[in-house]
């Protein structure tokens, strides 16, 4: 044996280690974990937090099993304008189901949807919206609904961007998800949106598996149909995972308090408060995505119906929570804008 | 450089790999993963299943993210006689809270509990049991309840074994949990028991973190108390995770179908049916723990009130599901019996 052989052996084993990701820590430390973020306090705060809770020996070190991070979805991980994307799904489903429901031609809120009369739809209020949801989200098995969501996502296009809705996710936030997971975090969605509307695509798009999605839901019922078990979706609210419901949903699904929470509206306020009140080592991490970019996305906050951000912004300013200024802090908004 | 140096370098890198667990596959294959199981069809079936779904290239290979295994708790992971251990908790809580509730001295089912009159308690039926649960499980914050459970477990002793209840977990099943996790599975509890009664100890005892516990629950409410957010436990049923509720709970919490399910009673029948009906690669794995050991544990099935096993046993026999004969298949029952 000679030096060449030794070198080859070491190189081979180093190659194995690299392939297996065992040497990636060093590589990761040298690489920018958040390349789509401009340098600034928001980016710095995330990196400082991760370093603080993951460095063994640090007074703020948090054991991996307690590294729970929760993310709102609409407006935090993907866009939510001009309306929540799930409403576009409901609208498209009403149109698809209309031939089998002739009464809808004269019956609100369905008539409004079929006539593309958004003003009349808005006038039907919360009651109208609920009717729309129940007519389009209930009455089928969970397996059938999952397929309907997948089929819709494959063909539906956002009215402004003319792209699949799942293209309109925030590249900088995807980097945060990846970065946290690379540092031992479990990432969860905690959204007011429908849990079964999100699960068919969150693993592919965000790397978040179905069991780490918390959301609003309708009731389901177990039934045997011709000897085959099914879960039927019922037209009855089970849980609303919004506002004061978010800490309830977190407790119900996760069973421990997050040490980091990310939101963008008053619907996330209680989740942020619940996370902020966590005792244990170190300060929890709180971040609000502030939509300030009218050119590349949308600009809205205190007066917006969708993504209303008022009290939560005040609390953020009062308590020194981190606020992302989308226009200033993000190099790109969507993955398709990456060069 | 010479052969010695080469050998030392290779040995050092091999040492690193071993330390990091990268070479453990070989070691694990040589070690018996289920040492507390006697050789037989039950033990063989588990090992064959794991090999079948984890070997790359096998026609039954299942991607790691789909390796979901669900376990009932009472009677499947720990004992459940003479009554569910959570009832002992409720009884002890009634006794602890009695001085502050003088009316209980004359009021059923509390009077029965305070007089240790198990016959009168049984006579109070489901309604009485529910009253007992609400009086002892509601009215405090989630944090307070968690502490109460931990404090109780530290001092409470099983009436027969005179040991902490968490000593009465099944060593052979703990080996199954470890074995599945070592092969990329996520292990979940899906129990009729209270979700918040289990979470304080399942990670320590079973290696199952709170977010992988599904169970029955009461409602909770988010409140600000002196500027501090709390979740208050309300005396109102939220969800019963038993029988036809188990597939509902699995869908709600996990959002995908298990490929393996473990139970011991008719309360687990629908979970087993739901798992058995899974399409995809390979046959799902179903197992029923049959309590046949009157000497070391308890022997009961078709006529037992607790752990009633009748229809599920018929289904197991009809469909060729795996059945553990505790007396025959298990070398030891509890960890404290290990030599």
Describe what you observe in this structure.
The structure is a homodimer of 339-residue chains. By secondary structure, the first copy, chain A, is α/β, with parallel strands linked by helices. Chain A contains 14 helices and 8 strands. In chain A, strands 1, 2, 3, 4, 5, 6, 7 and 8 form an 8-stranded mixed β-sheet that branches. In chain A, helix 4 crosses helix 7 and helix 11 crosses helix 12. The longest helix of chain A has 17 residues. At the A-B interface, helix 1, helix 10, strand 3, strand 4 and helix 11 of A face helix 1, helix 10, strand 3, strand 4 and helix 11 of B.
Give the key terms.
alpha/beta; about 350 residues; 8 strands; homodimer; about 40% helix; about 15% strand
Task: Show the helix and strand layout.
The structure is a homodimer of 339-residue chains.
Chain A lengths: L2 H17 L4 H7 L10 H14 L13 E4 L13 H13 L12 H5 L3 H6 L1 H13 L4 H14 L15 H12 L3 E9 H12 L6 E13 L2 E12 L5 H9 L6 E4 L5 H8 L8 E8 L6 E2 L10 H9 L2 E4 H4 L10
Parallel strand pairs in A: 1-2, 1-5, 2-3, 5-6, 6-8
Antiparallel strand pairs in A: 3-4, 6-7
Helix pairs in contact in A: 4-7, 8-10, 11-12
